[in-house]
Design brief:
With 204 residues, the chain is α/β, with parallel strands linked by helices. 43% of the residues lie in helices and 14% in strands. It has eight helices and seven strands; from the N terminus they run αααββαβαβαβαβαβ. A five-stranded mixed beta sheet has the order 4-3-5-6-7. The chain has a two-stranded antiparallel ribbon with strand order 1-2. It is elongated, with a radius of gyration of 20 Å.
């Protein structure tokens, strides 16, 4: 069923483009927007625009940060262990590890994994930036890189590729323990499991 209002249909269509949002959910969200106060809708619209205009990738770790806060607060923190870098697929995994309160090292966000079937190669993700970061003189303090990619075929492929590039640099390459189920996504793993996985990381 289509609504008689073109504006309503247009908003429903935009909501359905969001991940995990079907038409019924999109309709409920649209009805919520219609019933909300104008000031609330203005705040939502402003927040959406701000995300596109003010959020950038950290020039060091590639995690998301605000314009004017580059490098990000994790990279500049004096309380972090600068000898360890945890490599993750997306910013959501940084949040997952930070919630555990256990890991105190640095991060590197790849923004994807190698997936030949999807046309994604090493040059399409932030592997080069990781190698440059670990090989540069200013980052010579890095002694360990922890690969914390999702346990999928693509994650394994990416882990092996990165490992082959890092080992000649004399850097210890480890991966988080296998307490995480195959096929699971790290952002949905509970804090206790993530903490144990980080503690039980193994050499590759």
């Amino acid at each position: 069923m289509r609504y008689s209002s073109g504006a309503v249909e247009a908003l429903i269509e935009e909501f359905t483009k969001l991940p995990g949002i079907g038409r019924k959910t999109a309709q409920r969200l649209t009805m919520h927007v219609l019933q909300a106060r104008r000031s609330e809708v203005d705040k939502l619209a402003a927040a959406l625009i701000d995300v596109k205009e003010k959020v950038i990738r950290c020039s060091v770790c590639q995690n998301i940060t605000d314009r004017g806060a580059d490098p990000c607060h994790i990279c500049t923190s004096s309380g972090r262990d600068r000898t360890v870098i945890c490599v993750v697929e997306s910013p959501t995994e940084v949040l997952a590890f930070e919630k555990t309160g256990h890991y105190k090292g640095l991060y590197h966000v790849l923004h994807g994994v190698i997936s030949p079937l999807d046309g994604v190669g090493p040059d399409d993700i932030k592997v080069r930036e990781l190698i440059m970061r670990t090989a540069s003189g200013s980052a010579g303090e890095v002694r360990e890189v922890v690969l914390a990619l999702n346990p999928s075929v693509e994650g394994e492929t990416t882990s092996l590729y990165i490992s082959k590039l890092l080992k000649p640099l004399g850097i210890s390459v480890t991966r988080i323990a296998r307490g995480i189920p195959v096929g699971a996504e790290l952002e949905f793993i509970d804090e206790a499991t993530l903490s144990r996985a980080m503690e039980g990381r193994t050499a590759i």
